[in-house]
Amino acid sequence: LCRAIVRNYSRGQKLTLRFRRKSKRxxxxxxxxxxxxxxxxxxxxxxxxxxxxxxxxxxxxxHEEFTMQHLRAVHPDLILFSYGSNESYNAxxxxxxxxxxxxxxxxxxxxxxxxxxxxxxxxxDTRSGGRFPVNTEAITDSFRVICERRKSTFWDMHAVxxxxxxxxxxxxxxxxxxxxxxxxxxxxxxQGNLFSSAFLES
Length: 202
Description:
Layout: H1 57-62, H2 64-74, E1 78-82, H3 95-112, E2 117-121, H4 136-149, E3 153-155, H5 157-161, H6 167-172, H7 185-201
Parallel strand pairs: 1-2, 2-3
């Protein structure tokens, strides 16, 4: 990870990044994972997100060292995970192994960032392609147990939505897309508002 200080920068100004390699031998490649701007003024909220379409919790954990490296750089006060939708349709998933892997990851986070709060949300109710998400209940129960064990916070988005088959209500009210997996802008905004309200009241 690289860190640079840019002075006298105003929002809207063009910013050009140049990367210089030390050696001219061989091929050159670099991975660019993103950029973060932070104000020198103390206080306020900094929000970092890391989301990949179609990702699962296990895919994040597979790059655990890289994830830890990034978290150390941002010194988080709160770490929030929202996974489970894609795993819910994998009939071949070994839930005991899945739960143990997620639990081990959260346990390490607890050790590395004892000052940070950790929140895990359940997968929402979905019916992608008309299919039933066979693992939603098991994943939800697993996340709940892990949060209790690791002194973390669990938010049951599935229950907040209305429980099983509630995605149809969301669909009929313009809150879910026709694929019954993703949500509309209004649907995501509602989820955000519901979570924020629960967070502020906790």
